[in-house]
Amino acid sequence: MVPMETSDVSSAARDHPLLSVFLWTVFICSYMILAPIFGYLGDRYNRKYIMCGGIMFWSVVTLTSSYTPKQHFWALLLTRGLVGVGEASYSTIAPTIIADLYVKEKRTCMLSIFYFAIPVGSGLGYIVGSQVSTVAKDWHWALRVTPALGLIAVLLLLFVVQEPKRGAVEARAELHQTSWMTDLQALSRNCSFVLSTFGFTAVAFVTGSLALWAPTFLFRAAIFTGKKAPCLDEAHCASSESLIFGIITVITGMLGVFSGVQVSRQLRKKTPRADPLVCAAGLLLSAPFLFLAIVFAQGSTVATYAFIFFGETFLSMNWAIVADILLYVVVPTRRSTAEALQIVISHLLGDAGSPYMIGVLSDSLRKTDSFLWQFRSLQLSLMFCSFIAVVGGAFFLATALFIESDRSRAENYVPIADEPIVVPKSGRSTHVPVSSVLI
Q1: Exposed (0-12), middle (13-18) or buried (19+): which is 227, by Cβ within 10 Å?
Q2: How many other β-carbons are positioned within 10 Å of the β-carbon of residue 293?
Q3: How far is CA 174 from each of CA 79, 336, 347, 352, 435, rounded to the nearest angstrom?
Q4: What is the pLDDT of residues 105-116, one digit of tens each?
Q5: 399 and which of 160, 218, 238, 276 could share a cystine (Cβ 3.0–4.6 Å)?
Q6: What is the pTM of this model?
Q7: Across the strands, what pairs with 247?
Q8: What is the CB neighbour count within 10 angstroms for residue 49?
Protein backbone atom coordinates (compact mmCIF):
# COMPACT_ATOMS: atom_id res chain seq x y z
CA MET A 1 0.00 0.00 0.00
CA VAL A 2 2.54 2.58 1.09
CA PRO A 3 4.82 2.55 -2.00
CA MET A 4 2.02 4.01 -4.09
CA GLU A 5 1.67 6.96 -1.71
CA THR A 6 5.11 8.17 -2.69
CA SER A 7 5.50 6.89 -6.23
CA ASP A 8 2.16 8.38 -7.31
CA VAL A 9 3.06 11.76 -5.88
CA SER A 10 6.75 12.05 -6.73
CA SER A 11 6.35 10.73 -10.25
CA ALA A 12 3.32 12.82 -11.17
CA ALA A 13 5.09 15.90 -9.88
CA ARG A 14 7.51 15.77 -12.79
CA ASP A 15 4.90 17.27 -15.11
CA HIS A 16 3.67 19.91 -12.65
CA PRO A 17 5.60 21.25 -9.62
CA LEU A 18 2.46 21.79 -7.50
CA LEU A 19 0.76 18.54 -8.48
CA SER A 20 2.56 16.57 -5.76
CA VAL A 21 1.12 18.73 -2.98
CA PHE A 22 -2.41 18.55 -4.44
CA LEU A 23 -2.28 14.78 -4.88
CA TRP A 24 -0.90 14.27 -1.39
CA THR A 25 -3.57 16.50 0.20
CA VAL A 26 -6.45 14.88 -1.70
CA PHE A 27 -5.27 11.40 -0.75
CA ILE A 28 -4.83 12.26 2.94
CA CYS A 29 -8.25 13.94 3.13
CA SER A 30 -9.91 10.92 1.55
CA TYR A 31 -7.97 8.64 3.87
CA MET A 32 -9.13 10.60 6.95
CA ILE A 33 -12.78 10.65 5.93
CA LEU A 34 -12.92 6.94 5.15
CA ALA A 35 -10.90 5.68 8.13
CA PRO A 36 -13.73 6.07 10.70
CA ILE A 37 -16.12 4.22 8.41
CA PHE A 38 -13.79 1.25 8.13
CA GLY A 39 -13.03 1.49 11.84
CA TYR A 40 -16.73 1.09 12.61
CA LEU A 41 -17.07 -1.82 10.17
CA GLY A 42 -13.86 -3.47 11.39
CA ASP A 43 -15.17 -3.71 14.95
CA ARG A 44 -18.40 -5.37 13.83
CA TYR A 45 -17.95 -7.43 10.65
CA ASN A 46 -15.51 -9.83 8.98
CA ARG A 47 -12.26 -7.90 8.76
CA LYS A 48 -10.60 -10.07 6.16
CA TYR A 49 -13.32 -9.52 3.58
CA ILE A 50 -13.41 -5.79 4.28
CA MET A 51 -9.67 -5.54 3.61
CA CYS A 52 -9.93 -7.63 0.45
CA GLY A 53 -12.62 -5.37 -0.94
CA GLY A 54 -10.67 -2.24 -0.07
CA ILE A 55 -7.41 -3.46 -1.61
CA MET A 56 -9.11 -4.67 -4.77
CA PHE A 57 -10.85 -1.32 -5.19
CA TRP A 58 -7.52 0.46 -4.57
CA SER A 59 -5.78 -1.63 -7.25
CA VAL A 60 -8.46 -0.97 -9.84
CA VAL A 61 -8.54 2.77 -9.16
CA THR A 62 -4.75 3.05 -9.24
CA LEU A 63 -4.56 1.25 -12.56
CA THR A 64 -7.37 3.40 -13.95
CA SER A 65 -5.64 6.61 -12.87
CA SER A 66 -2.54 5.63 -14.84
CA TYR A 67 -4.53 6.10 -18.06
CA THR A 68 -5.80 9.55 -17.09
CA PRO A 69 -4.35 12.20 -19.45
CA LYS A 70 -2.38 14.86 -17.61
CA GLN A 71 -4.63 17.61 -18.95
CA HIS A 72 -7.58 16.02 -17.10
CA PHE A 73 -6.34 17.33 -13.77
CA TRP A 74 -9.58 16.90 -11.83
CA ALA A 75 -9.98 13.30 -12.99
CA LEU A 76 -6.52 12.55 -11.62
CA LEU A 77 -7.41 14.18 -8.30
CA LEU A 78 -10.61 12.12 -8.11
CA THR A 79 -8.88 8.80 -8.72
CA ARG A 80 -6.16 9.77 -6.28
CA GLY A 81 -8.80 10.45 -3.64
CA LEU A 82 -10.45 7.08 -4.23
CA VAL A 83 -7.13 5.37 -3.51
CA GLY A 84 -7.83 6.28 0.12
CA VAL A 85 -10.45 3.51 0.20
CA GLY A 86 -7.82 0.79 0.12
CA GLU A 87 -5.46 2.57 2.47
CA ALA A 88 -8.17 3.25 5.04
CA SER A 89 -9.49 -0.32 4.95
CA TYR A 90 -6.06 -1.84 5.43
CA SER A 91 -4.45 0.52 7.94
CA THR A 92 -7.36 0.55 10.35
CA ILE A 93 -8.04 -3.19 10.38
CA ALA A 94 -4.78 -5.09 9.79
CA PRO A 95 -3.18 -4.20 13.18
CA THR A 96 -6.28 -5.45 15.02
CA ILE A 97 -6.01 -8.84 13.32
CA ILE A 98 -2.37 -9.06 14.41
CA ALA A 99 -3.50 -8.16 17.95
CA ASP A 100 -5.97 -11.06 17.93
CA LEU A 101 -3.34 -13.52 16.73
CA TYR A 102 -0.45 -12.68 19.07
CA VAL A 103 0.06 -11.28 22.56
CA LYS A 104 2.76 -9.38 24.46
CA GLU A 105 6.31 -9.73 23.12
CA LYS A 106 5.21 -11.83 20.14
CA ARG A 107 2.69 -9.20 19.12
CA THR A 108 5.26 -6.41 19.35
CA CYS A 109 7.59 -8.41 17.12
CA MET A 110 4.88 -9.04 14.53
CA LEU A 111 3.83 -5.40 14.56
CA SER A 112 7.42 -4.38 13.89
CA ILE A 113 7.44 -6.59 10.80
CA PHE A 114 4.11 -5.12 9.69
CA TYR A 115 5.24 -1.53 10.19
CA PHE A 116 8.39 -2.05 8.16
CA ALA A 117 6.03 -1.34 5.27
CA ILE A 118 5.66 2.34 6.17
CA PRO A 119 9.24 3.64 5.91
CA VAL A 120 10.37 0.89 3.55
CA GLY A 121 7.38 1.35 1.26
CA SER A 122 7.83 5.12 1.25
CA GLY A 123 11.48 4.78 0.32
CA LEU A 124 10.75 2.23 -2.39
CA GLY A 125 8.12 4.61 -3.73
CA TYR A 126 10.81 7.19 -4.42
CA ILE A 127 13.13 4.62 -5.96
CA VAL A 128 10.58 2.75 -8.08
CA GLY A 129 8.64 5.87 -9.03
CA SER A 130 11.68 7.81 -10.18
CA GLN A 131 13.31 4.92 -12.02
CA VAL A 132 10.20 3.58 -13.77
CA SER A 133 9.11 7.00 -14.96
CA THR A 134 12.65 7.76 -16.16
CA VAL A 135 12.95 4.53 -18.12
CA ALA A 136 9.44 4.76 -19.58
CA LYS A 137 9.72 8.55 -20.03
CA ASP A 138 6.17 8.77 -18.69
CA TRP A 139 5.20 9.09 -15.02
CA HIS A 140 1.95 7.18 -15.68
CA TRP A 141 3.92 3.93 -15.72
CA ALA A 142 4.86 4.45 -12.09
CA LEU A 143 1.17 3.98 -11.28
CA ARG A 144 1.05 0.60 -13.03
CA VAL A 145 3.65 -1.13 -10.89
CA THR A 146 1.80 -1.89 -7.68
CA PRO A 147 -1.76 -2.90 -8.69
CA ALA A 148 -0.38 -6.37 -9.42
CA LEU A 149 0.99 -6.47 -5.86
CA GLY A 150 -2.47 -5.53 -4.63
CA LEU A 151 -3.93 -8.55 -6.42
CA ILE A 152 -1.35 -10.80 -4.75
CA ALA A 153 -2.25 -9.32 -1.36
CA VAL A 154 -5.94 -10.08 -1.92
CA LEU A 155 -5.22 -13.70 -2.85
CA LEU A 156 -3.03 -14.16 0.23
CA LEU A 157 -5.72 -12.67 2.47
CA LEU A 158 -8.40 -14.92 1.02
CA PHE A 159 -6.52 -18.21 1.09
CA VAL A 160 -3.94 -17.83 3.87
CA VAL A 161 -5.25 -15.49 6.56
CA GLN A 162 -7.92 -16.75 8.97
CA GLU A 163 -10.32 -14.32 10.64
CA PRO A 164 -9.51 -14.55 14.39
CA LYS A 165 -12.06 -14.04 17.13
CA ARG A 166 -11.74 -10.64 18.79
CA GLY A 167 -9.87 -10.92 22.07
CA ALA A 168 -9.75 -14.73 22.02
CA VAL A 169 -5.97 -14.98 22.16
CA GLU A 170 -6.00 -12.86 25.33
CA ALA A 171 -8.33 -15.35 27.03
CA ARG A 172 -11.00 -12.71 27.54
CA ALA A 173 -14.62 -13.25 28.43
CA GLU A 174 -17.18 -12.82 25.69
CA LEU A 175 -17.16 -9.19 24.54
CA HIS A 176 -19.92 -7.51 22.58
CA GLN A 177 -19.84 -4.42 20.42
CA THR A 178 -21.18 -1.22 21.91
CA SER A 179 -22.56 1.85 20.18
CA TRP A 180 -20.14 4.04 18.24
CA MET A 181 -20.76 7.01 20.56
CA THR A 182 -20.01 4.83 23.59
CA ASP A 183 -16.74 3.76 21.96
CA LEU A 184 -15.76 7.37 21.24
CA GLN A 185 -16.55 8.47 24.78
CA ALA A 186 -14.46 5.66 26.24
CA LEU A 187 -11.53 6.47 23.95
CA SER A 188 -11.69 10.18 24.77
CA ARG A 189 -11.23 9.32 28.47
CA ASN A 190 -8.25 7.08 27.72
CA CYS A 191 -5.30 9.40 28.49
CA SER A 192 -2.65 7.05 27.09
CA PHE A 193 -4.51 6.72 23.80
CA VAL A 194 -5.13 10.47 23.47
CA LEU A 195 -1.60 11.58 24.39
CA SER A 196 0.16 8.92 22.30
CA THR A 197 -2.05 9.90 19.36
CA PHE A 198 -0.88 13.51 19.62
CA GLY A 199 2.70 12.28 19.89
CA PHE A 200 2.23 10.20 16.76
CA THR A 201 0.73 13.27 15.06
CA ALA A 202 4.10 14.95 15.46
CA VAL A 203 5.73 11.95 13.76
CA ALA A 204 3.26 12.25 10.86
CA PHE A 205 3.89 16.00 10.59
CA VAL A 206 7.65 15.58 10.29
CA THR A 207 7.42 12.54 8.03
CA GLY A 208 5.00 14.25 5.64
CA SER A 209 7.13 17.38 5.46
CA LEU A 210 10.28 15.43 4.69
CA ALA A 211 8.56 13.16 2.17
CA LEU A 212 7.39 16.09 0.05
CA TRP A 213 10.15 18.64 0.54
CA ALA A 214 13.43 16.85 1.38
CA PRO A 215 14.39 15.95 -2.24
CA THR A 216 13.58 19.48 -3.40
CA PHE A 217 15.56 20.97 -0.53
CA LEU A 218 18.55 18.76 -1.26
CA PHE A 219 18.43 19.75 -4.93
CA ARG A 220 18.29 23.45 -4.07
CA ALA A 221 21.21 22.94 -1.69
CA ALA A 222 23.22 21.39 -4.54
CA ILE A 223 22.50 24.45 -6.69
CA PHE A 224 23.37 26.79 -3.81
CA THR A 225 26.74 25.10 -3.28
CA GLY A 226 27.48 25.06 -7.02
CA LYS A 227 27.46 21.28 -7.33
CA LYS A 228 24.57 21.36 -9.78
CA ALA A 229 23.44 23.76 -12.44
CA PRO A 230 20.03 25.49 -12.12
CA CYS A 231 17.13 23.69 -13.72
CA LEU A 232 13.75 25.00 -14.85
CA ASP A 233 11.90 21.76 -14.14
CA GLU A 234 12.96 21.33 -10.52
CA ALA A 235 10.85 18.24 -9.86
CA HIS A 236 12.41 16.39 -12.79
CA CYS A 237 15.97 17.52 -12.07
CA ALA A 238 15.76 16.41 -8.43
CA SER A 239 15.38 12.74 -9.42
CA SER A 240 18.85 11.81 -8.13
CA GLU A 241 18.08 13.41 -4.76
CA SER A 242 14.78 11.50 -4.67
CA LEU A 243 16.63 8.26 -5.33
CA ILE A 244 19.20 8.87 -2.59
CA PHE A 245 16.56 10.04 -0.14
CA GLY A 246 14.47 6.97 -0.95
CA ILE A 247 17.38 4.61 -0.28
CA ILE A 248 18.07 6.35 3.03
CA THR A 249 14.39 6.09 3.98
CA VAL A 250 14.33 2.34 3.29
CA ILE A 251 17.44 1.64 5.35
CA THR A 252 16.56 3.94 8.24
CA GLY A 253 13.01 2.61 8.28
CA MET A 254 14.10 -0.97 8.79
CA LEU A 255 16.82 0.00 11.25
CA GLY A 256 14.59 2.39 13.21
CA VAL A 257 11.60 0.07 13.58
CA PHE A 258 13.81 -2.87 14.56
CA SER A 259 15.96 -0.92 17.03
CA GLY A 260 12.91 0.73 18.60
CA VAL A 261 11.29 -2.63 19.30
CA GLN A 262 14.50 -4.12 20.67
CA VAL A 263 15.25 -1.18 22.97
CA SER A 264 11.67 -1.23 24.22
CA ARG A 265 11.83 -4.96 24.85
CA GLN A 266 14.96 -4.61 26.98
CA LEU A 267 13.68 -1.57 28.84
CA ARG A 268 10.40 -3.32 29.72
CA LYS A 269 12.40 -5.50 32.10
CA LYS A 270 13.12 -2.40 34.18
CA THR A 271 9.98 -0.30 33.81
CA PRO A 272 6.42 -0.81 32.52
CA ARG A 273 6.63 2.68 31.01
CA ALA A 274 9.22 1.58 28.48
CA ASP A 275 7.13 2.03 25.33
CA PRO A 276 6.22 5.73 25.67
CA LEU A 277 9.71 6.51 26.96
CA VAL A 278 11.31 4.94 23.88
CA CYS A 279 8.91 6.85 21.62
CA ALA A 280 9.78 10.09 23.42
CA ALA A 281 13.50 9.39 23.12
CA GLY A 282 13.15 8.66 19.41
CA LEU A 283 11.49 12.01 18.69
CA LEU A 284 13.72 14.03 21.00
CA LEU A 285 16.86 12.49 19.48
CA SER A 286 15.64 12.97 15.91
CA ALA A 287 15.09 16.72 16.43
CA PRO A 288 18.76 17.81 16.69
CA PHE A 289 19.87 15.51 13.86
CA LEU A 290 17.21 16.85 11.50
CA PHE A 291 18.15 20.39 12.51
CA LEU A 292 21.82 19.72 11.81
CA ALA A 293 20.94 18.15 8.44
CA ILE A 294 19.13 21.33 7.44
CA VAL A 295 21.96 23.59 8.66
CA PHE A 296 24.80 21.58 7.11
CA ALA A 297 23.09 21.39 3.70
CA GLN A 298 24.86 24.59 2.66
CA GLY A 299 28.28 23.28 3.62
CA SER A 300 28.63 19.50 3.31
CA THR A 301 26.48 17.11 1.31
CA VAL A 302 27.96 14.08 3.07
CA ALA A 303 27.22 15.52 6.52
CA THR A 304 23.69 16.40 5.42
CA TYR A 305 22.90 12.86 4.33
CA ALA A 306 24.55 11.47 7.47
CA PHE A 307 22.40 13.62 9.75
CA ILE A 308 19.27 12.73 7.73
CA PHE A 309 20.17 9.08 8.21
CA PHE A 310 20.32 9.37 12.00
CA GLY A 311 17.31 11.68 12.19
CA GLU A 312 15.08 9.35 10.20
CA THR A 313 16.34 6.32 12.12
CA PHE A 314 15.29 7.80 15.46
CA LEU A 315 12.02 9.04 13.95
CA SER A 316 11.18 5.52 12.71
CA MET A 317 11.56 4.02 16.19
CA ASN A 318 7.97 5.02 16.97
CA TRP A 319 5.91 3.20 14.34
CA ALA A 320 5.48 -0.29 15.79
CA ILE A 321 5.57 0.83 19.42
CA VAL A 322 2.76 3.37 19.03
CA ALA A 323 0.60 0.68 17.43
CA ASP A 324 1.33 -1.68 20.31
CA ILE A 325 0.42 0.99 22.88
CA LEU A 326 -2.96 1.47 21.23
CA LEU A 327 -3.65 -2.25 21.17
CA TYR A 328 -2.97 -2.88 24.85
CA VAL A 329 -4.70 0.20 26.30
CA VAL A 330 -7.89 -0.33 24.25
CA VAL A 331 -10.29 -3.28 24.61
CA PRO A 332 -10.53 -5.58 21.53
CA THR A 333 -14.02 -4.49 20.45
CA ARG A 334 -12.90 -0.86 20.11
CA ARG A 335 -9.51 -1.28 18.49
CA SER A 336 -10.52 -0.66 14.87
CA THR A 337 -12.36 2.48 15.93
CA ALA A 338 -9.30 3.56 17.92
CA GLU A 339 -7.04 2.92 14.92
CA ALA A 340 -9.37 4.98 12.73
CA LEU A 341 -9.53 7.84 15.23
CA GLN A 342 -5.75 7.89 15.55
CA ILE A 343 -5.43 7.97 11.76
CA VAL A 344 -7.85 10.90 11.47
CA ILE A 345 -6.15 13.00 14.15
CA SER A 346 -2.57 12.23 13.16
CA HIS A 347 -3.18 12.97 9.48
CA LEU A 348 -5.53 15.91 10.01
CA LEU A 349 -3.06 17.71 12.27
CA GLY A 350 0.01 16.03 10.80
CA ASP A 351 0.93 15.22 7.22
CA ALA A 352 -2.32 16.42 5.64
CA GLY A 353 -1.29 20.03 6.10
CA SER A 354 2.41 19.97 6.93
CA PRO A 355 3.69 19.96 3.29
CA TYR A 356 1.40 22.85 2.42
CA MET A 357 2.33 24.68 5.63
CA ILE A 358 6.04 24.30 4.94
CA GLY A 359 5.51 25.53 1.37
CA VAL A 360 3.52 28.58 2.49
CA LEU A 361 6.06 29.38 5.18
CA SER A 362 8.88 29.07 2.65
CA ASP A 363 7.13 31.43 0.22
CA SER A 364 6.51 33.99 2.98
CA LEU A 365 10.19 33.96 3.99
CA ARG A 366 11.48 34.28 0.43
CA LYS A 367 12.63 37.85 -0.17
CA THR A 368 13.48 37.40 -3.86
CA ASP A 369 13.18 34.68 -6.52
CA SER A 370 16.92 34.16 -6.59
CA PHE A 371 18.38 30.68 -6.16
CA LEU A 372 19.84 31.85 -2.84
CA TRP A 373 16.43 32.65 -1.35
CA GLN A 374 14.75 29.61 -2.90
CA PHE A 375 17.17 27.55 -0.85
CA ARG A 376 17.32 29.76 2.24
CA SER A 377 13.55 30.14 2.66
CA LEU A 378 12.95 26.39 2.42
CA GLN A 379 15.84 25.79 4.80
CA LEU A 380 14.34 28.07 7.44
CA SER A 381 10.84 26.64 7.07
CA LEU A 382 12.02 23.03 7.43
CA MET A 383 13.59 23.90 10.79
CA PHE A 384 10.03 23.98 12.12
CA CYS A 385 10.03 20.17 11.89
CA SER A 386 12.62 19.94 14.68
CA PHE A 387 10.38 21.99 16.97
CA ILE A 388 7.39 19.73 16.21
CA ALA A 389 9.52 16.67 16.99
CA VAL A 390 10.30 18.07 20.43
CA VAL A 391 6.61 18.75 21.08
CA GLY A 392 5.82 15.16 20.07
CA GLY A 393 8.44 13.89 22.49
CA ALA A 394 6.74 15.84 25.29
CA PHE A 395 3.40 14.16 24.49
CA PHE A 396 5.00 10.72 24.79
CA LEU A 397 6.60 11.68 28.10
CA ALA A 398 3.12 12.63 29.31
CA THR A 399 1.82 9.27 28.06
CA ALA A 400 4.29 7.54 30.39
CA LEU A 401 2.44 9.01 33.37
CA PHE A 402 -0.81 7.16 32.52
CA ILE A 403 0.33 4.05 30.64
CA GLU A 404 0.28 1.68 33.63
CA SER A 405 -3.21 2.54 34.85
CA ASP A 406 -4.72 2.58 31.36
CA ARG A 407 -3.18 -0.77 30.45
CA SER A 408 -4.40 -2.33 33.70
CA ARG A 409 -7.88 -0.95 33.10
CA ALA A 410 -8.01 -2.44 29.60
CA GLU A 411 -6.66 -5.83 30.68
CA ASN A 412 -9.05 -6.11 33.61
CA TYR A 413 -12.02 -4.71 31.73
CA VAL A 414 -15.31 -6.10 33.03
CA PRO A 415 -18.44 -5.39 30.95
CA ILE A 416 -21.39 -3.93 32.84
CA ALA A 417 -24.96 -3.28 31.82
CA ASP A 418 -25.43 -0.32 29.48
CA GLU A 419 -28.91 0.49 30.73
CA PRO A 420 -29.73 2.53 33.88
CA ILE A 421 -31.36 1.13 36.97
CA VAL A 422 -35.16 0.94 36.73
CA VAL A 423 -37.19 1.65 39.87
CA PRO A 424 -40.63 -0.06 39.73
CA LYS A 425 -43.69 1.40 41.37
CA SER A 426 -43.38 -1.13 44.20
CA GLY A 427 -40.19 0.60 45.29
CA ARG A 428 -37.79 -2.29 44.66
CA SER A 429 -34.67 -1.49 42.61
CA THR A 430 -33.73 -3.95 39.91
CA HIS A 431 -31.36 -3.93 36.94
CA VAL A 432 -32.81 -4.28 33.50
CA PRO A 433 -31.61 -7.72 32.29
CA VAL A 434 -29.80 -6.58 29.18
CA SER A 435 -26.92 -9.03 29.00
CA SER A 436 -26.22 -8.41 25.37
CA VAL A 437 -25.64 -4.67 25.68
CA LEU A 438 -22.19 -4.10 27.17
CA ILE A 439 -19.92 -1.16 27.68
Answers
A1: exposed
A2: 25
A3: 41, 18, 34, 38, 11
A4: 777 788 877 777
A5: 276
A6: 0.73
A7: none
A8: 13
